[in-house]
Write the structure tokens for this entry.
Amino acid sequence: GAGVSQSPSNKVTEKGKDVELRCDPISGHTALYWYRQRLGQGLEFLIYFQGNSAPDKSGLPSDRFSAERTGESVSTLTIQRTQQEDSAVYLCASSPGGANTIYFGEGSWLTVV
Amino acid sequence: TQLLEQSPQFLSIQEGENLTVYCNSSSVFSSLQWYRQEPGEGPVLLVTVVTGGEVKKLKRLTFQFGDARKDSSLHITAAQPGDTGLYLCAGRRPGGTSYGKLTFGQGTILTVHP
């Protein structure tokens, strides 16, 4: 597709389980970002990838959160031992390197029960 | 601590009215962006302002960046129901190496009634 694609679009999981969220960026975009949006809130930066490297992980809230990117393409955000406060929409965005505009996917809505 | 304070948080108006949304900070930003987000979708960029005092117009939308690059406003003239959505401001801190690392305000939910 032409845009940023995220899966799953919705995920309900039990507290304590691990979840993986996937992002397919726009083809050729070297920069990839993960953000979290809690209900009624703005977006919180989580992590930034340039190629397969993550020069900025400063927004990851705890060591339960990790992310990787392979082939300068797909990225996976993993949340271990999920907690109820992890419930949010997780948004992925990508951009060409050095560009001012980033393009967001539709997000993965995570609910931890 | 919210670096970007957006106000009002909710705005409910009638079609044809004018409105202004404010985005304020005590910090300087190298640029500031405004996004619009509809339910179930990601934010979509409306505009980027870079220079202090800059004013940009996009049809019925007017965006302004404060002289000190600490605040911004979005003004909509003659609002229409299609303007309904969540409006977000987002700033890029000076010296950052990542263009996409943004600090977002908490958003303004705008509802325009026919």
Q: What stands out?
A: Chain B has a mean pLDDT of 93. Chain B touches chain A through 23 residues (CB under 8 Å). The longest strand of chain B covers residues 85-92.
